[in-house]
Design a protein that fits this description.
The structure is a single chain. This protein is an all-alpha fold. The protein is built from four helices and no strands.
C-alpha cells in the first residue's frame, strides 16, 4: 500500500478528500451543549459509501 497525494485523492474522491485529510479535533461535550446528538453509524456509513462510490457524493441514503 502506498500513500496518495492530496491531488490524487481529490481526483478520485472530489472535495470529500479534503475533509478526510483534515486534522480536526471535536469536543463532544461542547457539541452536545449546542444541541448535537450523535446517531450511531450515520457519519461512518456516509463516508464509507462515498469512498466506495465517489459519484454518489457524501450524505445519507
Amino acid at each position: 500500500m502506498r500513500s496518495w497525494s492530496l491531488a490524487e485523492a481529490r481526483a478520485a474522491h472530489g472535495l470529500m478528500a479534503g475533509f478526510l485529510a483534515m486534522n480536526a479535533a471535536l469536543d463532544a461535550a461542547k457539541l452536545r451543549r449546542i444541541g448535537w446528538t450523535p446517531r450511531v453509524g450515520e457519519a461512518l456509513g456516509g463516508i464509507c459509501g462515498a469512498l466506495r462510490n465517489p459519484t454518489q457524493g457524501y450524505g445519507a441514503s
